[in-house]
Amino acid sequence: MSTKSDSCAQPGLMHPTDAINALLDQVSVIEQSEMVSLNEAVGRILSEDLASCIDLPPFDNSSMDGYAFKFDELTGETATTLTLVGTSFAGHPYKGKIPANSCIRIMTGAPVPAGYDTVQMQEKTSADGDKITIEHPNAKGNSIRYCGEELTAGTNVLKSGTQIRAAEMGVLATIGISQIRVKARLKVAFFSTGDELRPVGSELAPGQIYDSNRYSIKGLLTQANVEWIDLGVIEDDKEAIRGAFREAAKKADMVLTSGGVSVGDADYTKQILSEEGEITFWRLAIKPGKPFAFGKLGKAVFCGLPGNPVSSMVTFYKLVWPIVNKMQGLTVKEPLIVKATLTSAIRKQPGRAEYQRGILSRDDNGELVVSTTGGQGSGMLTSMSLANCFINLEQEQGDIASGAQVNVEPFNSVLC
Prior knowledge:
Blueprint: H1 16-25, E1 33-37, E2 50-51, E3 61-62, E4 66-69, E5 79-88, E6 102-106, E7 118-121, E8 125-128, E9 131-135, E10 144-145, E11 156-158, H2 166-174, E12 179-183, E13 187-193, E14 197-198, E15 209-210, H3 212-223, E16 227-234, H4 238-251, E17 254-258, H5 269-276, E18 278-283, E19 286-287, E20 291-297, E21 300-305, H6 309-328, E22 338-342, E23 353-362, E24 368-372, H7 382-386, E25 389-393, E26 405-410
Parallel strand pairs: 5-6, 13-16, 13-17, 14-15, 17-21, 19-23, 22-24
Antiparallel strand pairs: 1-12, 2-11, 3-10, 4-6, 4-7, 5-9, 8-9, 18-20, 20-21, 22-26, 23-24, 23-25, 25-26
Helix pairs in contact: 1-6, 3-6, 4-5
C-alpha cells in the first residue's frame, strides 16, 4: 500500500497509511490448509491453483433453440428447405444418421452432432411438416459454442488466494470439482474487560452498560469469514485478565480486545500485555480511534482496539481488516474511493485524518451526493448503523463547505 508523510499530524501521532504499512509488514499468511467440499466452500480462500480437468464447454453445443444443418448444403440466395430427421435435446443428443440436405431440431445447450456445423435460430425458420425452410445465416458455425472455446483441459481456472464466491462456486461445479484445498479459517479470539459491562438481556445497575463492542466486532469478524472464539467479559481482576490473554494466545491466530489501550487507562490490560507479550502502544493521527495496540502474544498476533464503540469499529475497518485479509491469504487492496458532493457543511480541525460516517446516495440527476449521519461522537454507535460509507477527510483539511467534492469510501463496493 502507499506511503504518506505524517508531516501534518499532531506531534507524536502516526499517519494511518504508515500504520497500515507497518502492520502488514509484521504479519504473514497462515500456513495451515484443509480440504472442504464444494457445498462448504463459499467464503473460503484457495490455498493452491486449480486447473480444469475437462474442456469447457465439453462438447460442441447450440447457443439457442433452432435447427442444425450443414452450411455447405445451403442453396439459393436467401433461404433453403431441408428435411427434418430428428431432435437433439440437452442431455439427450441426436444419435441418428445425417443424410444429405437434412437438419435436426436442436435446443439450447444440446450437443451438435458431428456432420452438422451451423445452427439457425427458430425465429428465422418456418416448418411445413418435415420440411424446414431456413433463412441463410451470415457464416458457417453460427450459434455454436465450440468444445474448449472457454477453456481447455489443464488450463488454470482459479489462482491460490482466490476467495470463493457464488461465481467461483458455479465455475467449480461446471468443471466437476467437488472438493478443494483452502486456507484454514483464521482463528480470532475476542474478549471484553470491565466490571461495568453486562451481557445483553440482563438488567443494568447504576453505572453499568451493555457490552456492545463484542457484538459489533463479532459482526465484522463474521463478515470476514473467520472462526470466532468468544471469551466473553472478563472482570477487572489482574489474574483473570492474564488468564484470558494466555487462553486466547493458545487457541487463536489473532487476539482482539477493545478498551484498555489508551494512555490514561487505569486498568490492568496494558501492564499484563507488556508482561505477557511484545506489544507496542500506538497513537494514530485518525479520528475516531487514536489509541491502538499491536504486537505478539506468544505466536498469536494481538490487536488492541479503543474502547469507544465507534472508535472500535473504525479502527477495525481501517487497520484490523487489512491484517485479517493478509493472514487469510487475500491480496490487500486499497479501498474503493469515489467522489461525491457534500450536501451540508462539515466542521473539522486540521491535524488528524477523519472518517466521518456518511450516507451516500444519488440526486435527481443521478450524481453521487453524501451527507453525514449527524452527530459524530466516538460513542454514538447509531452513526455507524445509519451510515453506508466513510467520508474520508485528510489530515491537512479544515472545515469543508456544502457543495464541495469529498472522498467517500463505501462500506460495500456496489454503489447505490
